[in-house]
Every structure is written in structure tokens, then in C-alpha cells.
Amino acid sequence: MGKKPTTVATVILAGGHGKRLHPLTIHHSKPAIAYGGRYRLIDIPISNSINSDFRQIFVIAQYLSGELQHHIQHTYHFDVYNPGSVDVLTPQENEKGDKEWFHGTADAVRKSLPTLLKSTADYFLILAGDQLYNIDFQSMVAFAEKSGADLTIASIPVLEKEAKRMGLLQINAQAKVIDFAEKPTDKKVLERFRLRGSFFKQWEIKPIKGHAYLGSMGIYVFKRSALTALLKQDKREDFGYHLITTAVKKKKTSAYIYCGYWEDIGTVASYYEANLALANAKGGLNTYDESHPIYSRPTYLPGPKIRQTLISDSIVCEGCIIEAKEITGSIIGIRSHIKKGTIIRDSVLMGNHFYMPPSHEEQPIAHDAWIGENCRIEKAIIDEHVQIGNHVKLINKKKLQYFDGPSIYVRDGIIIVTSGTKLPNYFEF
Predict the structure, then answer these.
(1) Is 157 exposed, middle or buried (0-12, 13-18, 19+ CB in 10 A)?
(2) Phi, psi (degrees; rounded to nearest 5) at 68
(3) Is residue 167 within 8 Å of 215, Cβ to Cβ?
(4) Which residue ranges form the domains of the chain, and what is each CATH number?
(5) CA torsion 320→323→329→333, rounded to 10°?
(6) Backbone angles phi, psi at 250, to 5 degrees
(7) Given Cys at both, which of 142, 151, 170, 172 links 179, Cβ 3.0 to 4.6 Å?
(8) What is the pLDDT of residues 229-240, one digit of tens each?
(9) What global pTM score does this model have?
(10) In angstroms, rounded to a whole number, what is the distance separating the alpha carbons of residues 371 and 375?
(11) What is the three-class DSSP state of 139?
(12) What is the C-alpha separation between 400 and 138, in angstroms, rounded?
């Protein structure tokens, strides 16, 4: 008899509050935020797992989990001919009737372990719910098997700016991790983890200009026994700050080096730039590979209807009605209706769950469109179901870098209009 095939279960950590993405997380959990006009961030790790033929998937959720659960329930369907499952795990009540809330990434997995261990998986692939990439996880698991590692950490060469917000790895010639530091800022620590020219030559990687480091992508492959033992041995809450440090000291830990596109959506600026990168032919997540599609909820919408609009370097999604004067360098999400004379530049419109119903109320809002006539919107993120009247200007005329309002915010010079906001005719910001 041949060797039993290796089985893998995927665990996606999707429970965090996403404070650095505020105000986008006022109405959404971070993994449920719209991306690219038609996806949700959670679709990326789920799709990569399915494309790698790892179809037993657990999503651990907590903050504002209802929208996330609804999306997953209506998106991912399996049957006897196409087996698989995506199960959403949320905090449970204990025998005393108290909710056992998750207090960190490792704590979430630890408290979900009774359910996870019902899987017969040999390995657990642990992913974040807010990262963008196209990765064949089969190759990572094959590397983990070949190295015999208890824990394999996906890693990527990064510059110092990114290194300070990541876990840093130091590896030997066999890719074994010999040192680890989470989000270091001390110059002496950074110098210790700095990559030398020999690293790029040894691993046949194109060198990057500037001080380079090997950063943890927050993607882990654990042997089943190693994960359960580590969670029992180290009772602390977080993988990055706590358990990975313990694993490097106590377990055989290896680094899987990846050099493709990867983006951690940790801030409003990174979210904004990752969206606009989709419309740029030179970068961004590849969503045009039919052999490795990004799955999302089917909408059954018609193609966009565009009338006398100048469009450049932009994506206009299904179901849109576009009468605008100009759309440049922007993402226009599903079911967006933009009326004539409007100019939109360098902006992300998340789209809408439904078309605007007819209104008979007397209010200074364009009744039959999400964005009215003769508006000007620049460097903005417009959340779902925002109604904008006629002659509205969102141009950050005071050039603010940071601003908190009841419905309009500014982060890194980017205007954010939160979900459900109604802006009247002639409003200016």
C-alpha cells in the first residue's frame, strides 16, 4: 500500500477588531470589508485555500461577525461531487452561561480546538483574514513535510518600513528559523535581522534595494501534534508576540520563502492603495487567472451601462449605471449609479447590496442614484450605501491628514465616507 495522502485543514483568523482600519470597521468586521468592487477580504484566503485543494476550512470570527457569516453562507457551497466545507466558529457559552470571548489569535485557536480536532487533518494551515496574495499552499505544505518542521512560517523579503510592523526571522542555510522578533523597532535588533547579499544569492532571489529583512507573513503550517502541544505549553494569547517565539525555541521551525505579491491590509492607506493597484497593469493582486479564481458571492448582475463617460485606469463592476463625465484611477463597485457631470478621481467606491429603492420623500438627495449630478470626488473611499446629492465636492480642500467626523473621516489624506451616510446637495468637504 502507498503512503496515506497528507490531509490539511485551513484555519482563518477573522475575529479582530481592526482598529487601524477605523472608520471602515465601524460597520464591518475587517475581513468583511469590500475589496475590488465585488469581493470581500475574506474571499482571498478562502479562495487560495480552495485553489490549493484544501477544502476543509474553519473561519474563526468574533467582532461584527453577522455580516461575515452571511457572506460566507451565501458564497461557498459544496456537495457530494464537489466536497468541502467552510465553518464559521464564534465564541461559545460555557456551562455557566458565560461567553468565552477570544483575547488574541492564539487564544481564538485554543478555544476553538475542540472543534478543530474533530478534523482528521495531519496539518493545520493558519491564515489571516485580511491579506492579499496568490499562493499555492500545496508547495508550502510539501516544503513543511520535506523539512520535517513542526511549524513552517511563510516569509517574504521586505524593507525596513514594513519590517517594523512584522515578525522578523533569521534562518540558517537549511531554512531553519534560529531567531525571531515581533515588530522590532530597536536599531540593534533590526541590525541583527538584516539580510546580507549572500542571502539573496543562496536562495536565488532578486535583491531588493535598501536594508532588507525576512518578514513573517502571518501564515503558518503546523503539524497537528505540534499545534496542540504548543497551545497547551504556552497559555498566552497571541501567535506573533508569544507562541511563535516559544516555537522557535522549543520546536523545529522552518521558513518557507515566498517572493510574489503579498499585502497585509493593516491600515486605511494600505487598503486604499491595494484597491487602486487592481486598476494598475503593473501591480496588485492577480484576479484575472481563471485557473486560480477569486471566489465571491454570485450577483447575477448585468454588465455595466456606461453613457458618454471618459474612463481611464479604472475598474467598473457589474450592475453599474455610469453617466459621469470622468472616472480616473478608481474602483467603482457593484450597483453604483453615478449621474451626469460628476468627476471621480483616485477613489474607491465599495458598491451596494441592492439598487436604491424609489423614494417619494422631499429631501435634498438624488432619489434615483447613489451619486448625483455634477459632483467632484477625489482621493476618497465611499463605503456601501452612501447617498450623495447633486453638486457635492469631496476634495479635502483643507488638505487634512487626519480628521474625525460623525460620518466623514480623513486618514493619511484619504477621505472616508462611512456606510449609510447621506450628503445633501452642494455639500463640500
Answers:
(1) buried
(2) -65, -45
(3) yes
(4) 8-277 (3.90.550.10), 305-423 (2.160.10.10)
(5) -20
(6) -105, -25
(7) 170
(8) 999 999 999 998
(9) 0.94
(10) 8
(11) helix
(12) 46
